[in-house]
Amino acid sequence: MKIGIIGAGNIGGTLARKLVASGHSVKIANSKGPETISELARDIGATAVVTDDVVKDVEVLILSVPFATYPNLSDLVTSVPRDVVVIDTSNYYPFRDGAIPEVDAGKPESVWVSAQIGRPVTKAWNAGLAATLADKGRPAGEPGRIALPVAGDEASGKAVAMTLVEDTGFDALDAGGLASSWRQQPGTPAYCTDLTPAELSVALQAADQSRAPDNRDKLIKQFYETGKMPSHDEAIALNRAVTA
Q1: Which CATH number does the domain housing residue 102 bear?
Q2: Is residue 241 part of a domain?
Q3: Distance between the two ends of the chain, CA-based, in angstroms?
Q4: 239 pLDDT exceeds 90?
Q5: 39 lies in a domain?
Q6: Residue 106: which domain range?
Q7: What is the side-by-side strand order in the sheet with 47-48?
Q8: Region for residue 149 given its phi and psi (left: phi exceeds 0; alpha: psi -120 to 50; beta: otherwise)
Q9: Which residues are registered as beta bridge partners of 60?
């Protein structure tokens, strides 16, 4: 497929690399200009472009930018044809993004994103750590393969997103519509806990929307109190313990 990715950080860059490796044609852009990511693009086989060009002649547009910056994409995304699948990979963290009253009041993150950019999105890849996405993918059918939730209201867009999740090395689990996508947000048992499909299904149902923000903030506090970045395994263990 022809894929455009806005955002070349840990998530966007990793997805670009894995999708190119799966045979997709990928363009990637960031806010600083293509010259700042030309080496990355060359190394992974993608094409670095300006943001105005990343949305042209694509079948899928993946948005992997800081949560609070989504309103800045409104004019750009408006120009994208309606049949292009738009995928949101973001997560809301108030300490980083500033307080967003609607989301703090319970509006699911990707519902808010859809409103900001003026079109429906499918939520995918948000529930995996960057290290998980980069290093923990496995071939289809291999025992212990990690599952990732995919939520969306448009069946065709969700089907495309699930196929691409599979292409990056993970089992894609249909997590319902955007209204229930809070079940895969930070602070829930499905978020950054590296679960199998059966385990993830249970985790999604066990999510408690009233507890999730407190869990999210408690985890951030614990990470900062250690005085160092936790290892991948430590982060997974902490997420599992706090959200259980």
Answers
A1: 3.40.50.720
A2: no
A3: 38
A4: yes
A5: yes
A6: 2-179
A7: 47-48, 25-29, 2-6, 60-63, 85-88, 122-123
A8: beta
A9: 3, 85
Mind spelling out the 3-state secondary structure of 14-64?
HHHHHHHHCCCEEEEECCCCHHHCHHHHHHHCCEECCHHHHCCCCCEEEEC
92's enclosing H/E stretch is none
Question: Which whole number is the average pLDDT over 82-101?
Answer: 97
Nearest to 13 by CA among 62, 52, 56, 58: 62
181-211 pLDDT per residue, tens: 999 999 999 999 999 999 999 999 999 999 9
Strands (DSSP E) along the chain, which ranges? 2-6, 25-29, 47-48, 60-63, 85-88, 122-123, 147-150, 171-174
Is residue 123 domain-resident? yes
User: Is 77 inside a domain boundary?
Assistant: yes
Reported as a single tens digit per residue, the pLDDT across 111-168 is 999 999 999 999 999 999 999 999 999 999 999 999 999 999 999 999 999 999 999 9
* The model's pTM: 0.96
Q: Look at the chain and report how many structural domains it folds into.
A: 1
